[in-house]
Amino acid sequence: MALTLYNTLSKTKEKFESIEQGHVKMYVCGPTVYDYLHIGNFRGAIFFNLVRNWLEESGHKVTYVYNYTDVDDKIIERANERGIEPGELTAEFIKAFEEDYARLKLRPQSKNPRVTEHMDDIIDLVKGLVDKEKAYVVDGEVFFSIDNFPSYGQLSGKKLDELEAGQRVDVDERKRNPGDFVLWKPAKEGEPSWESPWGAGRPGWHIECSAMIKAILGESIDIHGGGIDLIFPHHENEIAQGEGCSGKKYCNFWMHNNFINLKDQKMSKSLGNFITARSFMDKYHPEILKYVMLSSHYRSMLNVNEEKIDQTVSALARVYKALREAKQFVEQSQLESGKPYKALDQAMNSADGKIKKALNDDFNTGEMMANIFEVVRVFNAQNISKKKKDPNALASATAFQDWIAKWANVSALFLEEPQTFLGELDQILIKEKGIDPSQIESLIEQRNKAREEKDWAKSDEARDKLLDLGIEISDSPEGTTWEVKK
After folding, report:
1. How far is CA 304 from the centre of its chain?
2. Domain residue spans in the chain?
3. What does the alpha-carbon distance between residue 395 and residue 343 come to, in Å, rounded to a whole number?
4. 4-257: what fold?
5. What's the pLDDT at 267?
6. Is the predicted pLDDT of residue 418 greater than 70, yes or no?
7. What confidence tens digit (pLDDT) does each residue in 169-207 have?
């Protein structure tokens, strides 16, 4: 099945074909670096990592550009509040973002351009738009003329006569049309500025991405990604700038991920309904954040609440327990390997086909997860830990590990060491549920003593107390171990 993508531009799914055969040029709007990013900002980072990985898995070379906006009103304001230079602030938060990104075990992009590195490209693009009469200059400020770009509104579906002026800000009387937007703004005292044909100043927000795309990827690209909040005006304006200058189609496929609600409400600093990705990963785990993001389709609204996190912990535990069993069997086995069990082999082959179909159908990651769980179910049904002398059990454990690793490379999930990760889940649940480990150890000691004395009633009583606390115990020749039920 060929890859089909939902294209925001056409509002339909379309078969994907790259401009240059075998090479995909993809640009995704990255962060404005003035603070730690909230979990919603990471939905795109996690999802588009999978997009790039799947395109490569499907045989394409991918040039993936993800930018840093390091010139912005918010950056200047925050730097002034802290009494530091804007460049010092942006360096701090680029470093913080890259630390968070690395914790998620996501692969680096091909390039991470910064706006400040592309000022000459920005100025050249603005000059080109002025020369083509798509833009005009007033008092050292350059505006794009939407009246001179007839297809303005093609991405968002907004019509020129619907773009009422003054809905949010006072109308700038210097504009020929209230919808005209800034390409270059004059310098203000104390702000960073660059010399240009229109005087010292700095770029408007929208021109930056258009200039970096043209400089790095060329006049036309295959895929442009970002959150749905960027469709208008940012991406609409990017199209106007890019096509206004080149006369060529700016981008063939526009992909937009949806918002995230936190505890059934839109994330908002003013409401206190807000969590940074860093705080979330400290409280829970990077693996939990990735799974939450990929368990739902990227175009659907995603609600992150305690129930969703509980479901995620259970789901991850199911996969990692199976991986732990497979790993332990392989490490402890002295057998020559045989052949994987037929039921498992068939389940993996069937799931491969279904996952490929799901990902090729506009990246249906929820369906991908469902098929991974089906393979885990079939693997668990083999009970390999009870078949220590069966060479086919060893082959099955090895094949299962390899199969999960294949899809881990695409999704960036299931990359943790199983026993370590399950222990980390236990620590999360101990905190979340207020479990006292010393109480657990005491009950296990009581149970073991009762079993030694063959006091089965007392042994059962201790076991039932542990179950009531949500604790699962396992007895082996090495002793009794426990973990929190997941």
Report:
1. 14
2. 4-257, 305-422, 435-484
3. 13
4. Rossmann fold (3.40.50)
5. 82
6. yes
7. 567 889 999 999 999 999 999 899 999 999 999 999 999
* Residue 170 · residue 228 · CB < 8 Å: no
Q: CA–CA separation, 422 vs 8, rounded Å?
A: 40
The tokens describing 79, both together, are: 């730097």
Contact 259, 296 (CB under 8 A): no
Query: What is the tens place of the pLDDT at every residue in 81-139?
Result: 999 999 999 999 999 999 999 999 999 999 999 999 999 999 999 999 999 999 999 99
Q: What is the pLDDT of residue 164?
A: 52
Radius of gyration from C-alpha coordinates of the chain: 27
Q: Is the pTM of this model over 0.70?
A: yes
The dihedral over CA atoms of 409, 403, 289, 29, expressed in degrees to the nearest 10, equals: 30
Question: From CA 117, how far away is CA 378, in angstroms rounded?
Answer: 53
Closest by Cα among 399, 96, 421, 472 to 291: 421
Check: CB of residue 23 under 8 Å from CB of residue 60: yes
Instruction: Write out the two tokens for 354.
Output: 């279904």
Residue type, 109: Q
Look at residue 274 in the predicted model and tell me its pLDDT: 86
- 26 - beta bridge partners? 64, 223
